[in-house]
Amino acid sequence: MRILKLWSVLCLCGLLTSFIFGEEYIVTPLDREALLLAYGRVESLRSSRVAAEVPGRVLSRFIELGDSVKKDQILFHLEPGGLEFEIQALKWEIRENEISRDHHQKRLKRRTQNPKAYTEEAIDSERYTLDRLIASAGRLEARKKEQARKLSLKKIRAPYDGIVSGVFHQEGEWVGAGHKVCELLSLEGTRLHLEVSRRFFESVETGDTLQVLVAQKEIDGVVEQKVPSVNPGTGNHPLRVRLPLTIKDLSQGQILPVKIPYHEKVLRIPEDYVKQTGKSFHVVVFEKQGLTEVAVDGELEGPFFIPFDKALEGKVLQQIPR
Q1: Contact 34/261 with Cβ under 8 angstroms?
Q2: C-beta separation of 24 from 314 below 8 A
Q3: What is the rounded CA–CA span in Å between residue 94 and residue 253?
Q4: Kind and range of the H or E element at 163?
Q5: What is the pLDDT of residues 248-292, one digit of tens each?
Q6: Dihedral sign, Cα of residue 196, residue 200, residue 204, residue 210
Q7: Which of 44, 121, 122, 199 is deepest in the core (most CB within 10 A)?
Q8: At 43, phi and psi to the nearest 5?
Q9: Contacts of 85 by beta carbon, 8 Å cutoff, 6+ apart
Q10: How many whole angstroms separate alpha carbon 231 and alpha carbon 178?
Q11: 3-class state of residue 249 by DSSP
């Protein structure tokens, strides 16, 4: 016990002596304003290639590249082919079925009201005929609805409000089912795809508001997603920022220089307390068991080293001889 106390006193004396002679450094946080300089790629929140659901030849095209369109607006009209005639023929079959059902319904009523004049077999025969006509009517209605649905699909409509960013077919051309006829960009908003340093990536959270300077205009952007990956070439991390601008205000794929002022809390260590070997950094930390050399991840900034690991806060470092 006495040996342990003596060791603690000696360590304390050693620390005090080191502080006096300036050999140790206590890692403390620093709050400061910073500015991120980056380049971002503009994207619409939604981009869709509108496809034909049924085949046909383009009868009319109502859009041009760059047009603004509203949801459900007709973009292309395909030739109806024989669908209109098939629907009309089905209507006549349905009418004929109605007449037959009415006739057999009356016959069944007469026979059931006067059972002595008709055999049970004759009454059952009328019921059977009526049931078959009712089933046939259901099939005819289903076929008519299906043909009407196909006919409605001959008019290709916009799925949402947007801007036409591509047109792939002209009037008179054949379009197969599933073939793309045009491309739309949504007017709901835009996002900016950035690659940022790890320091900035770790300083923001999803939902944070950032003041993005675009073309000398300050805009509130919201951090939409922190992509958990890293660019091996640059060491930067992907970040998606939602912008209140629409694709009318910007261009799809446009590259924008962006300045984002933000507040950060950093740890700063004088470079005399850091040993760099290649791309790795090491510091010597006072621990209970003695001095321990620890590998840390971070970056140099002038005469200081900025560690990414916040666990170093409050640690006492030993100056590393040069």
Answers
A1: yes
A2: no
A3: 54
A4: strand 162-167
A5: 888 888 888 888 888 888 899 999 999 988 888 999 999 888 888
A6: negative
A7: 44
A8: -140, 145
A9: none
A10: 36
A11: coil
